[in-house]
Specification:
homodimer; 177 residues; mainly alpha; two-stranded antiparallel ribbon; 8 helices; 66% helix; elongated; DNA-binding
DNA sequence: TATTTCATGTAAGCCGTTACATGATTCT
DNA sequence: AGAATCATGTAACGGCTTACATGAAATA
């Protein structure tokens, strides 16, 4: 049981869903790939923390819908009260910017542009999803009780991080000019 | 040559320094440990991207001061223009909060408190260092040309991230109450 | 026609974490 | 007295990344 295993339990507890569904959601706030997720789901299934229903589909591989079990839910609650490890952050862009004073102006600005573009992509990608969530649940109170509330607050964080990232890029650019 | 190898080159290019110095600086914005850094420095030395001067000390192990070579600097510049990979972010707290709607109010609030405390620690730890930097270089113009400028902007980012993290925790708490 | 999306899986190899190892000094 | 700081290193194990593997439908 590594961190992501618990994360899978966490998301499955909000709603039965497939590995593919989980992947798409995780990608927004946890760096991972399908090759990590599928084996972990098998392990969770074997440990009986989740159960599996196969949904047959035409033209596509069968969809495996996972649901959390009571045993799994107990495991999830145990984990909640264990102190969380520190956030692991590894951003190559930061490494590059750590020697910004030895670079010429052109290179420095190019790096800042690259970084801003990255934030901008995140912003356009996720603020749409966020807007859709806001409009589907009429009020914020509805959202609060919906199965998507966790996703809603996490996406909000990602979007606000992107926004402040862009502001930071501009602040640095101002300092340099 | 992995990402951190280039990061080491990057920081060394701003100022000759030891593995231990590098570790302390990296820790602020890149998750790593000394067991990763020391072997990489050996490799960089063998590849002649850096050179090493031993500073003898009494009572402590000798300090190895690394300096970037011309060859290393060329390598560094090459890397700058290669597109940076996506930021790798793995925050266990986010995994926990992804199922916040299935938790009772007490647990949810406890998680938010834990998260805020973590941000608060970062804030108090790094805003001090940042303040020291600001006061040592009299004006921001001095800082811009100092060997610490890269560190200055990265620390600023870390501090502003912590601040917006705290705001986010409060925003979620308000939604829940 | 080529790429992306949907949908799952396996496997090799690299990388990083954790633990072991040492040891003097300074702070609590 | 015990923990933290300074200062470097090695090694095993586990986990993650990358690539391989398949394949239909939809989009560009």
């Amino acid at each position: 049981m590594n961190k992501l295993s618990f994360g899978l339990l966490s998301l499955i507890s909000t709603k039965p869903q497939s590995g593919y569904d989980l992947l798409l959601k995780f990608k927004r706030f946890w760096h991972t790939t399908h090759s990590t997720i599928y084996p972990l789901l098998s392990q969770l299934l074997e440990a009986e923390y989740i159960s599996c229903d196969v949904m047959e589909q035409s033209g596509k591989p069968d969809k495996k819908i996972y649901t959390i079990t009571e045993k799994g839910f107990d495991k999830l609650v145990d984990w909640m009260y264990k102190p969380a490890g520190p956030a692991v952050i590894k951003d190559e862009m930061m490494l590059k910017l750590s020697c910004i004073q030895v670079l010429d102006q052109k290179t420095a600005n190019w790096l800042l542009d690259e970084m801003e573009t990255r934030y901008q992509k995140q912003l356009s990608e996720y603020s749409e999803t966020l807007a859709r969530m806001k409009s589907s649940g009429t009020s914020e109170k509805d959202l609060r009780e919906s199965e998507d509330f966790g996703m809603y607050i996490l996406l909000s964080k990602v979007v606000s991080d992107a926004k402040s990232g862009i502001e930071w890029c501009n602040w640095v650019r101002d300092l340099l000019s």
